[in-house]
Amino acid sequence: MSIPADLKYTKSHEWARLEADGTVTVGITHHAQDLLGDMVFVENPTVGRVLAAGEECAVVESVKAASDVYAPVAGEVVAVNEGVESSPESINQDPYAAWMFKVKPVGDLSALMGADAYQAHVESEAH
Amino acid sequence: MADLKHTPFNAKHHEAHAKLVDFSGWEMPIHYGSQIEEHHIIRRGAGMFDVSHMLPVDVKGADARAFLRTLVANNVDKLQTSGKALYSCMLHEGGGVVDDLIIYFMREDWFRIVVNAGCADKDMAWMETQRDRLAPGLEITPRRDLAMIAVQGPQAPACLWEAMPGLEDVAAPLKPFNAVVVGEMFVARTGYTGEDGFEIMLPAKAATFFWQALLDAGVKPCGLGARDTLRLEAGMNLYGQDMDASTTPLESGLAWTVDLKSERDFIGKDALLRLPRERQLVGLKLLDKGVLRNHQKVVTAAGEGEITSGSFSPTLGVSIALARVPTGVNPGDTVEVEIRDKRLCAAVVKYPFVRHGKALV
Predict the structure, then answer these.
(1) Which of A39, B124, B163, B183 could make a disulfide contact with A88, Cβ separation 3.0–4.6 Å?
(2) Residue B233: left (phi > 0), alpha (psi -120 to 50), or beta?
């Protein structure tokens, strides 16, 4: 399982990356796409929507099931990746390149987990 | 998953790193990597499914045909040549479906029935109760000693002949929905995918050898995930979703499997003749972007309905579904489906959606 050390993670299996311009890029983890299987549909939030931390804001659907995606941080959606909407399978191929949306955050990422804590969280869920 | 039952192919699934799930109490492969790839393999090449969780049941005795005439909604008198198969529902007195099954006629004193895994215990109890009432001398034997494998796809026959030299001579002449006994193997030209192929029962002890021979002949293992999208595209019902004890076959797209013409009486017949037909099963093809799922509400000009089986169709590249809606909804109509906070448009279509690799809608 791939859990890059430079990203932050949520218990609901989103990853978040603080960019140099101060925005936060969001996607779902390798573990999340592995659980869901072949992706067939992605619905992103609209640009301009203001999200609370933990709010349901996007949907990914695999052949098997639909799954909500939650905002890792509070803030305004400033960009969405239309590429994952037209090619949902890109999330299976490389979930850390296939980002979903970018947020201009209100706070910082300190409430999120690092790679080690996320790894432990995934393992705890497997038992 | 220590508490789950294992089929004779279980070790082969672990060897192939299958993703295993609890399916009706059995540890079964949902996929071996990619459900969509496995779906395409069956449409274009040859794949195999472990279906040993399903239960073969032998009905033996002089009264076998008379018993089955009463037990199931389709008419076993359609079975006149050895090996011929019949798809039918087994009904409660109230017309609801106990299970759907395939009956193979082998001899006048031997019929073989294959029932769903999740219904196996309840079906055995039901059949034994009816047997005690109608034909006390009849033997009804569950065959958990058998493994069952479905080899499906346009290349399935060629691969099977390669894996089992000698089988071609006896199995190649089989027409669809016919079976033949070959030594200890029971080979039927049936399936649940809409493609050519065979369902084969064999002694459990020979299972891993047979699986390996098929692997060596190029047959790819496919999981129950692909089996579900294949059967949905092929417009085949799934028990527990598209029909169950609370629905009749007539409102489940299965009128073609119910014989109401002959004088024959069968369990549930009175109810089917008496109950008004207010609902029907139709096909849906989503026109907007999204994925149709089980239990989503369908809004039509004739009233509300519900999706019974919905998924993404890998062959068509769009979402499709079976839905139970009021009678009066017709192919060509457009309906709305509630998905989360939206209402999306879907076309009512005739199904099957796909047959023998070709899109039909």
Answers:
(1) A39
(2) alpha
Task: Give yes or no for a cis peptide into B352 (omega within 30° of 0).
Answer: yes
Tell me which DSSP letter residue B239 carries.
B
Checking B304-307 for CB contacts under 8 A at 24+ apart, the result is B305/B279, B305/B329, B305/B335, B307/B337
Q: Per the structure block, which two tokens stand in for B295? A: 């239990």
Chain B hits for A41, CB-CB cut-off 8 Å, are 289-291, 312, 319
Which chain A residues contact residue B223 at CB under 8 A? Answer: none
Residue of chain B with shortest Cα separation from A33? B34
Write the Ramachandran bin of B243: left for phi over 0, alpha for psi from -120 to 50, otherwise beta. Answer: beta
Using one digit for the tens of pLDDT, what is the confidence trace for B307-342? 999 999 999 999 999 999 999 999 999 999 999 989
Are the C-beta atoms of residues A22 and A80 closer than 8 Å to each other? no
Of the residues A62, A64, A87, A93, the best mutation for testing chain B's interface (the one with the most B CB atoms within 10 Å of its CB) is: A64
- A56 shares contact with chain B (CB less than 8 Å): no
Q: Do A37 and B34 touch (CB under 8 A)?
A: yes
B interface with A, Cβ–Cβ below 8 Å:
19, 30-31, 34-36, 225, 229, 289-291, 293, 311-312, 314, 319, 340
Mean pLDDT of chain B: 97
Q: Do B35 and A37 touch (CB under 8 A)?
A: yes
Domain ranges for chain A? 9-106
Report in angstroms the alpha-carbon separations of B177 from A126, B75, B166, B171, B180: 43, 15, 21, 12, 11
Shortest Cα–Cα distance, A5 to chain B (Å)? 26
Distances (CA, A) of A91 to A41, B145, B306: 10, 43, 31
Q: d(Cα B48, Cα B146) in Å, to the nearest integer?
A: 17
Half-sphere exposure of B182 (CA within 13 A, CB side): 18
Write out the CATH class of domain A9-106. Answer: mainly beta
A40 with B291: Cβ contact below 8 A: yes
ipTM score assigned to the predicted complex: 0.89
